[in-house]
UniProtKB/TrEMBL annotation:
PROSITE patterns: FLAVODOXIN_LIKE
Coiled coil: none
Keywords recorded for this protein, A-Z: Flavoprotein, FMN
Co-factor requirement: FMN
Protein name stated in the entry: Flavodoxin
GO molecular function annotation: flavin adenine dinucleotide binding; FMN binding; oxidoreductase activity, acting on NAD(P)H, quinone or similar compound as acceptor
A GO CC term attached to the entry: cytosol
């Protein structure tokens, strides 16, 4: 299965998680696309069969700058070819920020719902104030995600 990994990163942790996810997906026999500067034409040209978003949260609960162009293009265009695809979201944040903890991930979840992407399992919230290895902390969630893809 072709899995596109959409990545929003500020300091690199989300990109590391995304690249680790890609390695696990490839090891399970899936083809992956992961690029923190991914644009909509490249995403659609890949013809994904599943979507995974890995994003941190910045500022007052916003998505990272590198993800905003793709987010806006998806939100404004609502490409029909993504409707019905299985998907999931891994959100990185810091629980000490209270209400904005993993808000970037929540935005991607809402966008996936608008696009008609079918969430195959609940969003994973990784707390940066507790974890120094988010990529390994994500492995159990990713293993379940891979099983959902078949």
């Amino acid at each position: 299965m072709k899995v596109a990994i959409v990545c929003g990163t500020v300091y690199g942790s989300a990109e590391e998680v995304a690249r680790h996810a890609a390695a696990l997906l490839r090891a399970a026999g899936h083809e992956t696309l992961v690029n923190p500067r991914l644009m909509l034409p490249d995403l659609l040209a890949f013809e994904p069969q599943a979507l995974l978003a890995v994003t941190s949260t910045t500022g007052m609960g916003e998505l990272p700058d590198n993800l905003m162009p793709l987010y806006a293009a998806l939100r404004d265009g609502l490409p029909g070819e993504l409707r019905g695809l299985p998907g999931g979201v891994i959100a990185l944040g810091d629980a000490s920020y209270g209400d904005t903890f993993c808000a970037g991930g929540e935005q991607m979840r809402e966008l996936f719902a608008e696009l008609g992407v079918s969430e195959v399992q609940d969003m994973l919230r990784l707390d940066g104030s507790e974890s120094v290895t988010p990529e390994t902390d994500a492995e159990p969630w990713l293993e379940a995600f891979i099983k959902h893809l078949g």
